[in-house]
């Protein structure tokens, strides 16, 4: 075992043993072994698949996807190579923000099935070796949640202090909105309460007061409830807002954060399930990232790398890799137990807010030139395939997704290159039903009224883009994506190893080298529509051969130790070094 991993295991072992003496002995789980720790690092090399149950598979013909339908599709996900399913919010909801407005944290929305259907889904997923994670949306509730309804009714309600109130309208009532252009304020007057309530997001999503210990206790209760139901971890929604210290006088443009909320949450979940994890949604500047992971990995195990994502789109749009290389290096320093999660598209807009104005306008020009494609003055509300267009560029993007120093996350439907519906409001454009086949409603539902329109026209209509057709075509995107998933499984170096960006002498080529337990990988990508030559200076003594993992051909490195690779337009190669 490499010293780093050994140190990590031993370090964790030691810290666990310390905890043992501080806690009540009868509750202490047995001391973990180093092998357990390797299992506990499962998130470093899994493939996460993001599912919105409502639009994935309808089993009873009412036009709404459900847990039974999702359970029926587990074989498909297994075949694709999915290791973990991330469920978008599925609790009872008025559904004004696609379920991110929760009205009961402990239930299953009756439209999606019964609690028993959920249990059955988890059981069957686990039987297939698939873990299930879920969204933890406790920054806010729906305004229809009984807590808020009681809080707004009476000042002496115990729930009043569960939300954030101001008697007078705060000075910066219209600053710091998350959805600019759509949302007008972050403080809204509530007639019933006679006061203003705080909401970072839409006005129907009042923020919970996380400073209140009772709210923190409730969050732990929610987490415990779902862990007991079998979930493997949580995608923590809106982390910077969840932990901001908000009150009637705070500055929404410069909030302070209370990171120990995350530390406690981390300790709490691991106490109940040793390998459970937190995956944070926090689009922060690299300079601010450290406390989100925690200096010693005591906060979130994983975070989405929004920063690298924006620079990745810049590189895909311009063929220039310098800023992506810089972004990767700037986000490199994370604790050994931590891991980035990389994605191409998610359920929201592609947020380009951290690019410079000129960089952002280049990405808009290439991928979202029409104003109907843009959103919130910072992003693009399209799916990947229509945006990138060229199948070679799409394939390059997937090769990157699986080989960047992170764990890959795929949004449902991206694996077949689904399109978007720009006639739908805001981010609903990328949330249309899954396209399974050429049958009516894309095989999503046998019903007549769909929860959201199925894409049926144009080049991305379901008769052209669907799972069934792509399954039988070995060159399809679906088959390529599952090949990448298999390839990634053969390359544990990516999730577990040390890595560096190599100097390739080309502005258009990104090369990353990974080392782990004496194994070395070098993965190169050409972002240019023109063929490129690049220099790979990665060989070590004894490793003078590069084996191309895509075709098994090997090339010997000459006396200089530098290998010159020829890459076709948008070409890529995964090399393993060998002796
Ligand atoms: C997160 C989700 C987004 C949702 C918001 C409010 O940013 O990704 O979809 O609208 O939180 O919960």
UniProtKB/TrEMBL annotation:
PROSITE patterns per UniProt: PROKAR_LIPOPROTEIN
SUPFAM superfamilies linked to this entry: (Trans)glycosidases (SSF51445), Glycosyl hydrolase domain (SSF51011)
All copies of domain Glycosyl hydrolase family 13 catalytic, residue ranges: 50-431
A Pfam entry, by short name: SupH-like_C
InterPro entries listed in its UniProt record: GH, GH13_cat_dom, Glyco_hydro_b, O16G_dom_2, SupH-like_C
Keywords, ordered alphabetically: Signal
One annotated GO biological process: carbohydrate metabolic process
Protein name (Swiss-Prot/TrEMBL): Trehalose synthase
Species annotation: Spirosoma agri
Lineage, uppermost ranks: Bacteria, Pseudomonadati, Bacteroidota, Cytophagia, Cytophagales
């Amino acid at each position: 075992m490499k010293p780093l991993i050994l140190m990590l295991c031993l370090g964790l072992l030691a810290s666990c043993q310390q905890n043992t003496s501080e806690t009540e002995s009868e509750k202490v789980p047995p001391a973990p072994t180093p092998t357990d720790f390797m299992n506990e690092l499962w998130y470093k090399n899994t493939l996460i698949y993001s599912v919105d149950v409502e639009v994935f598979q309808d089993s009873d013909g009412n036009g709404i996807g459900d847990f039974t339908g999702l359970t029926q599709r587990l074989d498909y996900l297994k075949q694709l190579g999915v290791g973990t399913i991330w469920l978008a919010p599925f609790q009872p909801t008025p559904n004004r923000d696609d379920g991110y407005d929760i009205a009961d944290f402990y239930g299953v929305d009756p439209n999606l099935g019964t609690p028993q259907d959920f249990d059955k889904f988890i059981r069957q997923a686990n039987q297939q070796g698939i873990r299930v994670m879920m969204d933890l949306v406790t920054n806010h509730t729906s305004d229809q949640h009984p807590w808020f309804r009681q809080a707004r009714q009476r000042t002496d309600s115990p729930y009043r202090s569960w939300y954030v109130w101001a008697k007078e309208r705060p000075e910066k009532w219209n600053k710091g909105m998350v959805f600019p252009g759509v949302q007008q304020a972050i403080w809204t007057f509530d007639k019933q309460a006679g006061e203003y309530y705080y909401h970072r997001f839409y006005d129907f999503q009042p923020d919970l007061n996380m400073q209140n210990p009772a709210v923190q206790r409730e969050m732990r209760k929610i987490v415990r409830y779902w862990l007991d139901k079998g979930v493997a971890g949580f995608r923590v929604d809106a982390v910077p807002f969840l932990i901001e210290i908000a009150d009637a006088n705070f500055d929404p443009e410069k909030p302070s954060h209370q990171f120990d909320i995350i530390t406690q949450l981390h300790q709490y979940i691991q106490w109940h399930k040793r390998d459970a994890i937190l995956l944070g949604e926090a689009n922060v500047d690299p300079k601010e990232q450290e406390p989100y992971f925690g200096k010693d990995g005591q906060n979130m195990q994983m975070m989405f790398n929004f920063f690298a994502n924006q620079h990745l789109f810049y590189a895909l749009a311009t063929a220039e890799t310098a800023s992506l290389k810089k972004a990767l290096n700037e986000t490199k320093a994370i604790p050994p137990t931590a891991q980035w999660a990389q994605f191409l598209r998610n359920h929201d807009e592609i947020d380009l807010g951290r690019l410079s104005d000129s960089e952002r306008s280049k990405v808009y020009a290439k991928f979202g030139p029409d104003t109907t494609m843009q959103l919130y003055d910072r992003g693009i509300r399209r799916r990947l395939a229509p945006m990138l267009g060229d199948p070679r560029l799409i394939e390059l993007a997937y090769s990157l997704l699986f080989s960047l120093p992170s764990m890959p996350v795929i949004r449902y439907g991206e694996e077949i290159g689904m399109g978007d519906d720009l006639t739908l409001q805001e981010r609903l454009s990328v949330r249309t039903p899954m396209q399974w086949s050429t049958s009516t409603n894309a095989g999503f539902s046998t019903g007549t009224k769909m929860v959201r329109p199925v894409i049926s026209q144009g080049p991305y209509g379901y008769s052209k883009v669907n799972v069934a057709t792509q399954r039988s075509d070995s060159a399809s995107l679906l088959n390529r994506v599952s090949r990448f998933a298999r390839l990634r499984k053969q390359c544990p170096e990516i999730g577990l190893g040390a890595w560096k960006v190599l100097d390739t002498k080309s502005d258009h080529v990104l090369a990353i080298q990974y080392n782990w337990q004496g194994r070395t990988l070098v993965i190169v990508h050409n972002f240019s529509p023109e063929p490129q030559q690049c220099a790979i200076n990665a060989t070590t003594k004894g490793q003078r051969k590069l084996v191309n993992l895509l075709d098994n051909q090997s090339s010997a490195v000459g006396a200089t130790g530098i290998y010159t690779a020829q890459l076709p337009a948008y070409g890529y190669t995964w090399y393993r070094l060998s002796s």
